[in-house]
Design goal:
Strand order of the largest sheet: 8-7-6-9-12-17-18
Number of strands: 18
Structural class: alpha/beta
Radius of gyration: 20 Å
Number of helices: 13
Distance between the termini: 37 Å
Length: about 375
């Protein structure tokens, strides 16, 4: 996607052919900084610190982390160490495990001397596959937006609400929930995006709003609890969110607060769609609420906020009383019954095991 007219991906291989560059998302929206990742430990820290975040991007970063590890040492022991360190960084997003499994399948049959080159090739394929998947998701989502647009008066906009960041910053390019939005905007459809601020880390305000703005998409940032009010008053035509893991039964795990948006959408008859790349489906889990592990993150994300002061300084301030304990659940699970449809690279599916298995039989087979 574009930043002030210039195309960027969220992660890419540098011209030297071995080091990796990524947009440092911890610096946004105040600074646009490119970070350099030169070894597996740096890839681990990039994922853990959320320098990179979003399930598809985490997977791509982990794949490049393995490649960096193999560049130093192609042994089985080094491969085991790298994958073990990377898998521990983020427990909820299934793309991380998927990417590491893909790397192992590609590398284990090879002699250690051949693994570095093969690792870079497979990591690059994973990144390119993500881009292709997201563009396809965008095409299927675009049809949903255009169907609503056809019911509008000339010049009347389609209002889309999204939660957290499922944009190109969460993937390698295009985004999941935003792919259809970008395609609709680029085709000159009248659209507008309501952007949840998404506490506690404010990914909506700091990332989604930033990327939409720099691509030129009309949008408005709202407090997290505003969505229900907007839906009650007919100001939201559809909701599109991303997902970090989707269970075989169609339950969707996404950033904390997604479930509440789904409840409000259901109560007000607003379509609620989930943009779902197939590597995010976990066919080993049949009940998302009971089985998907929910990451509990540092209390600092709740107690502290970072912003720019009036004189231009970037400062972190505390907003919670020192003596107050904090719980910071990173995700929640939206049951399939609240999901209108799953926008995948193979079409818009019903949120059921049968529909997912029919669309992605190779994923089901791989889990057996």
């Amino acid at each position: 996607m574009k930043v002030d007219g210039e195309h960027f991906r969220s992660i890419w291989l540098e011209p030297n052919g071995w080091s990796v560059a990524a947009v440092d998302q911890t610096k946004l929206p105040h600074e646009f900084v490119i970070a350099r990742i030169t070894d597996c430990d740096a890839a681990v820290e990039a994922i853990r610190s959320m320098l990179v975040r979003g399930a598809p991007l985490i997977g791509a970063t982990a794949a490049y982390g393995v490649a960096l590890a193999m560049r130093s040492d192609g042994s089985d022991a080094a491969l085991d160490r790298a994958t073990a360190a990377l898998i521990e960084t983020r427990p909820t997003a299934i793309n991380l495990k998927w990417a590491l499994d893909e790397m192992k399948v590609a590398l284990l049959p090879l002699p250690p001397s051949a693994r570095a080159e093969a690792a870079y090739v497979r990591a690059g394929e994973i990144a390119e596959q993500d881009i292709a998947i997201n563009r396809s998701i965008g095409q299927h989502g675009l049809a949903l937006i255009e169907k609503i647009a056809a019911t509008k008066q000339p010049g009347e906009r389609v209002n889309i609400l999204t939660h957290c960041n499922a944009g190109w910053l969460a993937t390698v390019d295009w985004g999941t929930a935003t792919a259809a939005i970008y395609l609709a905007h680029d085709k000159a459809h009248a659209i507008h995006v309501w952007v949840d601020e998404t506490r506690p880390r404010n990914q909506g305000a700091s990332l989604t709003a930033w990327e939409l703005g720099h691509h030129g998409v009309p949008h408005t940032v709202i407090a997290d609890n505003t969505g229900g009010h907007l839906m009650q008053h007919g100001m939201v035509d559809l909701v599109i969110v991303g997902t970090d893991r989707t269970a075989a039964n169609g339950d969707v795990c996404n950033k904390i607060g997604t479930y509440l948006k789904a409840l409000a959408a259901h109560d007000n008859g607003v379509p609620f769609y989930v943009a779902l790349p197939s590597p995010t489906i976990d066919f080993m889990i049949d009940d998302g609420i009971a089985q998907i592990p929910i990451e509990q993150r540092s209390a600092d994300e709740v107690t502290m906020m970072t912003g720019r002061t009036a004189d231009g300084r970037i400062e972190k301030v505390r907003i919670v009383a020192e003596e107050s304990p904090v719980a910071n659940y990173g995700f929640d699970v939206t049951p399939a019954r609240l999901v209108t449809g799953l926008i995948t690279e193979r079409g818009v599916l019903q949120p059921t095991r049968a529909a997912l298995a029919l669309a992605f039989p190779e994923r089901v087979k791989a889990k057996q």
